[in-house]
């Protein structure tokens, strides 16, 4: 450790003090705050999704809210155990992508990756629009500006994440703790009541119950189960972002995963119990969570605090995507399925290009949807269910190959999980197909085709570069440096001096045009060149058209054909102004020449900067 640094305090989990790079990573607590917002916020719409579907069977159907929720909680437990195993088996992150890549083949891993990318992007858009919708419900005058409010919220979350994932996690600990705390207060107080404290929130609003109630059958319960599984989105985020945790990364990530499952499961079950206890029914314009807060705590300050906390957490739950997607993009880039720029990190352990790409695509979705949550929600859960199913199937194969102690029980556990999430994916896609799910059906293969196109391109590049093979030993060749000039100055002298230092032979070239003014300037340059006599040949390149870069590129090609044993370098001298604004005063001749030479020849290009001081 450098003597100029001070030793940091020990981490909250009691391990050795982290180094400077580790300081910008997540602990179990900050990881839970940064990567669980999506899952925590889902309690605002998960139970409501169940109730709305069961309302098709009238009040009798609403009686099945708790059994359906218990089934979802059981699936949650399976997923938590499974992703805890994924974290241990794949500590480099990637979740279902990493599992599928190892056990199910490259094509299946691309399906998982594409589904996760779509889920992360849609999570940002849905979270931001849902949060802004809560705000505009409280302040209707802001409704007309909801798109701008969405973009402002997205910009805020993006800026926080560009400062580093640890910094963003600390910023989100307080709102997450407030939301979870109030949820448990709401549940605890509600369980002590025998009747609702208030029904003012739902007063005057029309019921959503069906006029002609249908029978409670397996199909209705299955649809309610699939819709309620929207509350499970975000469970995979911790497994995808294991590298973002401090060492020991896997152990910290596993703790955060278990804590997430316990808190989310208790909230879902508790809210469902209260729905049955208070006999709540879905109404237009008021969420089920708002009705529960009203019934448990009364229509007072606590009611508004919960609504405000829900709004904040929904808006900030987009942070889950900003923590998980850049890591997934890094893995795809490392495997040559995306441009390698996505694997680069900034000084705060931030995959900046992944963060910015997510922000730009999400902003486009927000503008496209007009800031309307209902336009985006049907697309939301499909991607994550596909990822869940692939991860579960991959872990089944993992245990079948490992065959360690207790492997049969794990196979059964993951197999049941794969069956349940697969059925949920099919049901949600079928039921929401005409409402926008068709877009996901199209987007998945498009993303896969993009991954494969990039992979093939990198394969061709690697073949041309001979990657993985020992190249021929380097050898010296004759070096020729070509220097474009237009007049005599200190810049010309510096350029020729640098060229003489670089090559065995130097040639200066100037482009002449047939205009009388240009001919006069050429004659003046040639006369002064002869007087100066720098020992460098001045070559005149005639061009009938007023072009600068193409004649020089053509000359380079001629020299290369005539002297195949020479290495040609084009040295372009340019002035570097003292102030940034002074760049507007200079022409772009150097850029024009460099563009033509790079596009039309194989010559090396050297840009010489002459500072004006």
TrEMBL record:
Q: Specify the superkingdom.
A: Bacteria
Q: Does the keyword Transmembrane helix feature in the UniProt annotation?
A: yes
Q: Which residues cross the membrane?
A: 68-90, 110-135, 147-166, 172-192, 258-281, 301-329, 350-370, 376-399, 411-430, 436-454
Q: Where in the cell is it found?
A: Membrane
Family annotation (InterPro entries): AA/rel_permease1, APC_K+_Transporter
Which keywords does this chain's UniProt record carry?
Membrane, Transmembrane, Transmembrane helix
**Coiled-coil residue windows:** none
What's the short name of a Pfam family annotated to this entry? AA_permease_2
What is the designated name of this protein? Putrescine importer PuuP
| Record organism | Streptomyces hundungensis
């Amino acid at each position: 450790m450098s003597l100029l640094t001070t030793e940091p305090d020990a981490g909250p989990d009691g391990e050795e003090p982290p180094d400077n790079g580790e300081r910008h990573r997540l602990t179990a607590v900050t990881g839970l705050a940064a990567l669980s917002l999506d899952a925590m916020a889902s309690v605002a719409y998960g139970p409501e999704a169940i109730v709305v579907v069961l309302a098709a069977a009238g009040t009798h159907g609403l009686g099945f809210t708790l059994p359906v929720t218990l089934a979802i909680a059981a699936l949650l437990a399976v997923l938590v155990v499974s992703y805890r195993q994924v974290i241990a088996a794949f500590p480099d992150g990637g979740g279902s992508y990493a599992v599928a890549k190892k056990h199910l083949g490259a094509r299946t891993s691309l399906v998982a990756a594409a589904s996760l990318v779509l889920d992360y992007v849609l999570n940002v858009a849905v979270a931001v629009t849902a949060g802004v919708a809560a705000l505009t419900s409280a302040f209707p005058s802001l409704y007309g500006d909801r798109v701008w409010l969405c973009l402002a919220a997205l910009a805020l979350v993006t800026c926080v994440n560009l400062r580093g994932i640890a910094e963003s996690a600390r910023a989100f600990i307080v709102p997450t703790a407030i939301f979870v705390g109030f949820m448990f207060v709401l549940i605890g107080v509600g369980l002590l009541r025998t009747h609702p404290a208030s029904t003012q929130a739902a007063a005057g609003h029309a019921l959503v119950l069906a006029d002609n109630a249908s029978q409670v059958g397996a199909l209705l319960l299955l649809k309610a189960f699939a819709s309620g599984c929207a509350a499970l989105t975000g469970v995979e985020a911790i497994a995808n972002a294991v590298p973002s945790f401090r060492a020991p990364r896997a152990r910290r990530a596993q703790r955060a995963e278990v804590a997430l499952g316990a808190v989310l499961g208790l909230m879902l079950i508790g809210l469902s119990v209260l729905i049955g206890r208070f006999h709540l029914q879905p109404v237009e314009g008021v969420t089920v969570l708002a009705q529960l807060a009203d019934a448990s705590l009364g229509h007072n300050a606590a009611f508004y605090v919960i609504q405000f906390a829900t709004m904040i957490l929904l808006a900030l739950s987009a942070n889950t995507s900003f923590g998980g997607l850049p890591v997934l993009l890094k893995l795809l880039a490392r495997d040559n399925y995306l441009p390698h720029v996505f694997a680069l990190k900034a000084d705060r352990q931030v995959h900046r290009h992944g963060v910015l790409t997510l922000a730009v695509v999400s902003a486009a979705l927000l503008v496209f949807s007009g800031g309307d949550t209902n336009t985006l929600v049907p697309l939301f859960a499909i991607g994550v269910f596909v990822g869940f199913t692939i991860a579960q199937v991959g872990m089944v194969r993992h245990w079948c190959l490992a065959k360690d102690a207790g492997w049969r029980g794990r196979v059964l556990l993951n197999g049941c999980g794969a069956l349940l999430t697969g059925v949920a994916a099919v049901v949600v896609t079928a039921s929401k197909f005409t409402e926008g799910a068709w877009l996901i059906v199209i987007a998945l293969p498009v993303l896969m085709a993009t991954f494969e196109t990039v992979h093939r391109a990198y394969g061709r590049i690697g073949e041309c570069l001979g990657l993985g093979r020992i190249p021929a030993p380097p050898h010296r060749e004759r070096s020729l440096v070509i220097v474009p000039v237009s007049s005599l100055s200190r810049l010309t002298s510096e350029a020729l001096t640098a060229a003489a230092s670089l090559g065995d032979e130097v040639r200066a070239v100037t482009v002449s045009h047939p205009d009388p003014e240009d001919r006069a300037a050429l004659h003046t340059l040639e006369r002064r060149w002869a007087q100066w006599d720098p020992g460098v040949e001045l070559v005149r390149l005639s061009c009938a058209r007023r072009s600068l870069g193409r004649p020089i590129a053509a000359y380079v090609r001629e020299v290369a054909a005539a002297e195949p044993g020479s290495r040609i370098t084009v040295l372009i001298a340019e002035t570097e102004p003292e102030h940034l604004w002074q760049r507007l005063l200079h022409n772009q001749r150097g850029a024009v020449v460099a563009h033509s030479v790079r596009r039309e020849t194989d010559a090396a290009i050297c840009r010489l900067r002459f500072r004006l001081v």
